[in-house]
Structure formats: structure tokens, C-alpha cells
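sanity check this fold:
=====
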Amino acid sequence: MKIFNTLTRRKEEFVPITPGKVGIYVCGPTVYDFIHIGNARPQIVFDTLRRYLEHKGYEVNFVSNFTDVDDKIINRAIKEGVDASEISERFIAECKKDMETLNVRPATVHPQATKEIPDMIELVKILIDKGHAYEKNGTVYFRTRSFKDYGKLSHKNIDDLESGHRAEAHALKVSGEDEKEDPLDFVLWKPKKEGEPFWESPWSEGRPGWHLECSCMSKKYIGGTIDIHAGGEDLIFPHHENEIAQSEAANGTEFAHYWMHNGFLKINGDKMSKSLGNFFTVRDICQQCDPQVFRFFMLSAQYRTPLNFSKELVEDAAKGLERIVNGAEKLTDIIAKENGLPLSDKEKELLDTELPKYVKRFDDAMDDDLNTADAISVIFELIRFSNASTDTESSSAFAKALYDTLFELCDTVLGVHIERKKDDMAADDVAEIEKLIAERTAAKKAKDFATADAIRAKLLDMGIVIEDTREGVKWKKA
């Protein structure tokens, strides 16, 4: 498998630190509200990466954190008159609900920043002892210029960064609000403000800087060097750049071998923002469309490319997924007949020579920097092959082999369900639909087409669409 490594700006062959095992760290959300659909993209993309690596036989340790101490959390807590922990715990639970809805599997570990404070304090002590950090009036700063490779991930020149900070730094120094040795230095620990949560430390009662938590939690739950560190491209600078600096300065080892970053999500061509009125939470979207359609849409583009969210594109994704579900349903109908027929010579040949070609092309697409867009194209071709290769005379064994392959690629690896969603309809409603369909079938046999058409119209008024197929009448909610 080849991965585009942000660090080197090229595709590289993936070689894990420990053969057969992979450690992945994905930066999770700050939990002060329901997660938005921009948050959902890295969660879906890197959940799919995990699934694919497991499909290839790797044992994956997948760690994704929750930032549960932050200014936004504190501000909301003050506004609601509750403890900050009440806000964070509430929205951690809501985030987990949304991820389950999108079929994002729970991480091996979901560490929370507030539960790892002692390790963060120890890391700051190490950085101070090594001359990479210093304390000023209770605040601890990282001495950025002490790390010679600063800027290697974002490919920013430290002198250019300094010139960009010069005017801002001068204004702060004049006002006495900044005591940093260098405007590029960033905060590792900061003193509490009135009403804020805090922890005891050698420097002050306070809390850690944002960048610190991921360095500590990745080391604790994966190790000193991570195979793959991932997140949205907005995190490259300064968050991931600062993670590298503080981790490598403290540990003396490479922080991560591969860096993967997904592209931005736009809304009808614009950046998502509350001021533009185009800000959507996952909860909002899942009330408007099937969550599986949303996941399928998110995987319809290669993860590094910008993705434009629009009603029309989501509708296209819904139509595409419907084609796959219909193809899977045809196979399950054949399987359900349990006709006991042995595989024919033709079926054996197709399974031995043709079906493996689709699996290989799917794997080739995924091996090419997780190209889910091309992988989905292969699944569409597999559906066409399946539809053309099966009919009412096909053996159940042949249909099951096709279905199992489709399930592995689409459901297991991409995390997109291929079984038609069973709506929570009352048993009496289902019985009534089945009764009307039976009456329509009888009317057609009696050549009473007027009655048959009237029943179809009645079903449509009930929100039920029917389709006459070689395998019988199919129905679904409109």
C-alpha cells in the first residue's frame, strides 16, 4: 500500500514499525457542541483506512482523542451555569451517537485530555530540563527555535513565520501582555483564569495547551513513534507541527512515520460557516438523508481532494448506493430460495477467473493512497457483472459467493451497508402492504389491469413504491 505522506509530499510504500501491526492516531473533536459535517470527514475517512488495513490482515491499534478542556467548552459551561466537565461529557456521548449512526467504529481507545494531565505535566518537565521550554509567571512556553526541524511538516520557513509575527509580537510586548522570548514560542501550560477548571502543577494552577495532549496520549496508547498520524488538513499548522516539535524534542525519536490529511469540505462551493448560514451538524444532515448515503457520499472522492457538499451531489450518491443495494437484494433473493443446485461449470469459471479480478482492482485502488472513489467505481462494475451473471436459474451457492464478496468490499471495508434498510414499520402496516400487493398480483393474472393500476396508485399514496421483477414484486418506501 502506498500513502501520500504530508511530511515528504510524496507517495510512499507503507511499512509498519512492527510487522503485522499498525498504530494510528487521529485527532478527534473538541466537545463543546454537536459535531459538524466537516468533523465527520476525517472520522469516516480514517475509519475506512482502519477497516482496509484490517481487511489486509493487520492488527490495528486505532486511537482517537476527545479534547475535553478548551476555551469553547469553558465559555459554554459559563453560559449554561454548569461545570465544564458536564458540557464535555454530554457532547462526548452525543459524538459517539453520531459516529455510530455513520457506522464509524469506536476507537481502540478514546482518551480524554482531562484524564491524562499528570503525563502532560511530566512531558513539560522533560522539555524544561532539556532546555526546550521555559516558565514565565506561571506560563510555560516551548522554545520553538530550539527544535531545528520546526516547519518540516507544514514546509514553512521559520524566518518567514517570524516576519509574519513581528508586528503582532511588538504590539503585545508594548502592552506588556506577552513575555515570550520569541514570538514563535507556543504555550505548553497556562495559568487558570477566574472560574476556569484547573490542575496543580509546579508552575501554576492551570491547564495544558492544546498541542500538548496529543503528544502525551499518542505516546501512552501507541508508543514513542506512531505508524500513521492523521487528521484534517487544517491541523497541519500549527497543531501537528507543534506536536512534532514537542514530542521529538522530548523523546529524541521520530514522532510519526506517515502523516495523512484529508481535504476540506465545502458547502455549495463555499467554506462552511455559521455567518453564511451553511453550517450543518451531523445530526442535522442525518435527519435529512440516510446516514449511509452521507457516508457513501464522503467516500465518493479521494480523501485528499476538497469535497463539495450539495443537495444534488448527495442525491447522486443516494442513487448510486441504491444501485448497489438493488444488486445485493437480487442476490439475497436467489440465496433465500435455497435451490440446492450445485455450481455449474460456467459459475465455477466465473468465480475462479472473473470475480478475483474485481477484488484485485478494488484492492489496487485502495492501495493507491486509499482511493475510495476508484474503489467505488469497481464496486459498480461488480454489480453490473453480478446482474449479468445471475438469473432465476442461478444456484444459491453462486449468488452467495458474489454476495459475500460484495459484502466484504462495501460493507466491511467501506463501512457502507448493502442490505436495504428495514424501516421501523408496524407489523399491521407491513401486512396491509403485502395484502395489497397480493391483490394486485391476482388482478393482473385476471387481466383486470384497471384494478391493478388502482392498487399501485393506492400504495404510492401510502408512500410505497413497487417494482415488478423476474424474482417477483419488490416494494420499498418512497
Summary: The radius of gyration is 27 Å. Residues 364 and 375 are 8 Å apart (CA to CA). The first strand starts at residue 2 and ends at 5.
